[in-house]
Write a structure and sequence with these properties.
The structure is a homodimer. By secondary structure, the first copy, chain A, is mainly alpha-helical. The radius of gyration of chain A is 19 Å and the shape is elongated. Chains A and B meet through helix 1, helix 2 and helix 5 of A and helix 1, helix 2 and helix 5 of B. Chain A binds a DNA duplex through helix 4. Chains A, B: Pfam families: HxlR. Chains A, B: It comes from Sphingomonas cremea. Chains A, B: Keywords: DNA-binding, Transcription, Transcription regulation.
DNA sequence: CTGTATCCGCTGAGATACTG
DNA sequence: CAGTATCTCAGCGGATACAG
């Protein structure tokens, strides 16, 4: 159970590093509203760089959470869409973000206490 | 909603970088079985380094998820324990890990397909 | 429009040695 | 026993420029 070499732990840790990365959850939750083109995603997530959006989408595509559809026209058109696997991830992720929102005050309070103590010691 | 500058998104993203880091979930799930001393945790999670265990525990403590109790004896004794906030996180995290376990085959399959295609193109 | 390629700084994380 | 300090290296991620 606690051994990172066993395949279950590795899968969990892989999933966590994916959803734990800086952009995946944001992209998935945006795509939850329906398919988007590349630059639509950029507009809806203004702070993401082109490079990171590409990398994030590739990662999600590799894991089978997002599908990528190319329409070879001029200009080219690429649509990204959640797969059913991607949609099924929404439930657990929402549970987590709801928890974060609900407990935000308590977390910030704890951080404040911790940092105040740290400063006391430093002083 | 998609703006990383708004406090809600920042809290969520902070939470994700905590539970998304390499060790936090492992530590929390170990502590779910009851309080542990520092070296007990090291023994139960053999692959964690001393440094990373310390840093992980500090982070969890700062967020109010774990409490740290020092008994100034010789040798010194320090017990780590989940707070009620820490326990309440177990539910959402379990939902996520259950999802990962349930969908592990499909994810690996998707990765296999993706990597096979990539190799085809490379060849 | 939808990417890829490159450079580069910052942080995460391991190894090792030292301290109260 | 329970840490801190320092070195080191790899990888993430931003900015920018280029390409089909």
């Amino acid at each position: 159970m606690k051994d990172p070499n066993n395949p279950i732990c590795r899968t969990i840790s892989d999933l966590l590093s994916r959803i734990g990365d800086k952009w995946s959850v944001l992209v998935v939750s945006t795509l939850a509203g329906g398919p988007r083109r590349f630059n639509e995603l950029r507009r809806e997530i203004p702070s993401v760089s082109q490079r990171m959006l590409t990398l994030t989408l590739r990662g999600l595509e590799r894991d089978g959470l997002v599908s990528r559809t190319v329409t070879p026209s001029i200009p080219p058109r690429v649509d990204y869409e959640l797969t059913s696997l991607g949609h099924s991830l929404q439930g657990p992720v929402t549970a987590l973000t709801d928890w974060a929102i609900a407990n935000m005050p308590e977390i910030h309070e704890a951080q404040g206490r911790f940092d105040a103590e740290r400063d006391d010691i430093a002083a």
